[in-house]
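Incident log, structure service

09:12 report received: a user says their structure output differs between two submissions of the same chain.
09:20 pulled the input from the user's history:
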Amino acid sequence: MEPEAAKLIGAGIAAIGVGAAGIGVGTLFGQFLSGALRNPSAAAGQFTNLIFGFAVTEALGIFALLIALLILFG
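09:34 re-ran on a clean worker, output below:
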């Protein structure tokens, strides 16, 4: 296998994390909405946890994109 092909395959595998972050954010907000509809009085107390989870999930997606770009152009 040529090194350039291995580099492209590695960058593609690393970019899977970006899609996984999108799935994680969708699941996070979907579960929050489901819980907020079941118990509206507790939704305000869980909103900070929602924002923290969103930030961590998005950060992992950005890190995955960074690694993919480092592999591709490094």
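09:41 both user submissions now match this output. Likely a transient worker issue. Closing.
09:42 reviewer note: The radius of gyration is 17 Å. The mean pLDDT is 93.
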